[in-house]
Task: inverse folding
């Protein structure tokens, strides 16, 4: 956006203010990493010297961000936190656990594989190259047993009978790729206990269809939320993306997580 002062165009952007020849502090100081130059005179439309990351952030509003998932639940959780991905890059990864693989190891491996696949896709896209990329994988387990992402009625029924009246754990591994292609990873665990499910409960829930494609054969954000007797840990982790840990990881690597809050209301 431009403002005209003395018939000369002056940039009105994240790092600029009025063009009256006076010195003003950077209006986004603290929002963008590297944008800490403080006061500077505004006399023309020429952008002041800076490191390239700040200039790019100021021009675009923020760095590009890619979610390596096609999950509407993960997208909704990010939107809830005020972050709108610039692109979705679901990874075509075989999610079958390896023989003898433990739940934690499985979640970590798959999250990294999804991040790797998304990075390769982004590297081929001039518009997205250099983006932050976030991938995640959720695993539901009873002890060392990894429950499948149920796609068949029999799978869902078996999962629900196994979970009935018992404790289980939900693991979500998140993997962040920075613009410099460094990988940062976290694993989050939530403990959950279901009530004892009657056969009527199980059959009625299967009839809802809500379980399809869900790890462990249930969606806690839906009807199955009424099955939960006790939960210890992150609720959003069970849904598929632990918000606190994801936002903390992004912010720690320089992504302006508060940028979308400015017009959230």
Result:
């Amino acid at each position: 956006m431009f403002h005209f002062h003395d018939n000369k165009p002056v940039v009105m952007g994240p790092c600029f203010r009025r063009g009256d020849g006076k010195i003003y502090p950077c209006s986004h100081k603290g929002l963008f990493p590297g944008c800490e130059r403080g006061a500077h005179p505004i006399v023309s439309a020429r952008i002041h010297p800076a490191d390239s990351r700040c200039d790019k952030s100021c021009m675009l509003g923020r760095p590009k961000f890619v979610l390596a998932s096609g999950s509407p639940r993960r997208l909704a959780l990010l939107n809830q936190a005020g972050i709108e991905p610039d692109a979705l890059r679901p990874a075509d990864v075989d999610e079958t656990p390896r023989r003898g693989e433990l739940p934690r190891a499985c979640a970590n491996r798959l999250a990294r594989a999804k991040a790797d696949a998304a990075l390769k896709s982004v590297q081929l896209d001039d518009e997205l190259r250099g983006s932050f990329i976030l991938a995640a994988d959720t695993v539901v387990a009873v002890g060392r047993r990894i429950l499948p992402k149920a796609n068949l009625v029999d799978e869902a029924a078996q999962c629900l009978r196994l979970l009935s009246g018992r404790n289980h754990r939900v693991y979500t591994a998140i993997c962040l790729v920075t613009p410099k292609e460094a990988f940062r990873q976290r694993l989050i665990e939530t403990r959950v206990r279901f009530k004892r499910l009657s056969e009527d409960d199980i059959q009625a829930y299967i009839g809802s269809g809500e379980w399809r494609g869900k790890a462990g054969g249930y969606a806690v954000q839906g009807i199955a939320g009424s099955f939960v007797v006790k939960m210890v840990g992150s609720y959003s982790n069970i849904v598929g993306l632990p918000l606190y840990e994801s936002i903390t990881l992004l912010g720690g690597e320089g992504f302006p997580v508060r940028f979308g809050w400015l017009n959230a209301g």
About this structure: The first strand starts at residue 2 and ends at 5.
